[in-house]
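Figure S7 source data.
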Amino acid sequence: MPEWLALYYREPLELTHGEGRYVWDAEGRRYLDFFGGILTTMTAHALPEVTKAVAEQAGRILHTSTLYLDRHMVELAERIAALSGIPDARVFFTTSGTEANDAALLLATTFRRSNQVLAMRNSYHGRSFSAVGITGNSSWSPTSLSPLQTLYVHGGVRTRGPYAQLSDAEFTAACVADLEDMLGQVHGTVAALIAEPVQGVGGFTAPPDGLYAAFRDVLQQHGILWITDEVQTGWGRTGDHFWGWQAHAASGPPDLLTFAKGIGNGMSVGGVVARAEVMNCLDANSISTFGGSPVTMAAGLANLTYLLEHDLQGNARRVGGLLAERLRAATAGLAVVREIRGRGLMIGVELTEPDGTPSPRAASLALEHAREAGLLIGKGGREGHTLRIAPPLTLTVAEAEQGAEILGGVLRRVQDTIG
Ligand code: PLP
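Tokens for the predicted pyridoxal-5'-phosphate complex:
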């Protein structure tokens, strides 16, 4: 195995094909995919509608660039603009979530003529020079040489530390007071606040509903833009809402919204949505060589159509709720499980050592045992101690029950090992 490959497992796992919620490895073993690729397989593996759209477009023309009109791109942009909730919205396509956030930062800092931004503690926004500069965890953000000046706001993590004891209302009030205090200390203009409605890589932690609406009231007093990073939370994954920001809708929609991961069902589609006045502050913003490429746009359109026609948001709410319930039942009494939390089909299982500290070793063991038992899951969290469960949104009740049972057995094994 090449040393430079950073893999989840002790021994590499080579996947060869998938169907529905299952994938197969090179030895023919089948796995239930509880991580949906990496939240990229939003509907299902090898969804015939998407495969057909990709094959047909590939047979016509692979690439034209945004210099020319492609009907899939126009239609997808129109549908995403309408769904976004942002008035007078425009869409700019990219090839990844990182690039979408870069574009959003470029727009916000240009529009506001400031390189000061607010980001959340424990956040993850991608791998580029500016994206690591707004990522609030030093192990994911190894450089401090970012061109941005970033101030980190409370509100991301609340499972540990002084904020853990607070009620939702107290937590919200404390975070708002922190934000106000911070803004009182800042010199000059602040361009934007960027936040994931539910932190993804950070361990599927959600703030109380309404936190960002309360933030929004403060931000608006200063003209600061709100960028919602929906790379993991978009398209109905959180169940109750189509976008994560809608759990904080009281003060209206965000100014900018970024998306990627699931919309292409594995094809590289990302993008940013913004009001026309913000989008138009850059002249050359319509040029990206591969952003909006026809094959990816055809995939995105077919995938979005399927998602809406089959009410997969409703499925995420129903089956996600049942899955969380079954997981709680399957792990009841296990001291290694500190908390099972989440929204819809975005469920975090936080693991702990006997002394109450975060347990990355339990998470690593759980991944290995789950693999042996035919289940693929992810992990994350500030210390890498949280299992992340985010299956394709077509997950059935029977598959949810099967996965919960496997994971219950896996965590009992982990409990026996770590004591
Ligand atoms: N934003 C969020 C919330 C993410 O979770 C990720 C990736 O995990 C990114 C941005 C970066 O996306 P990409 O890996 O497509 O560049």
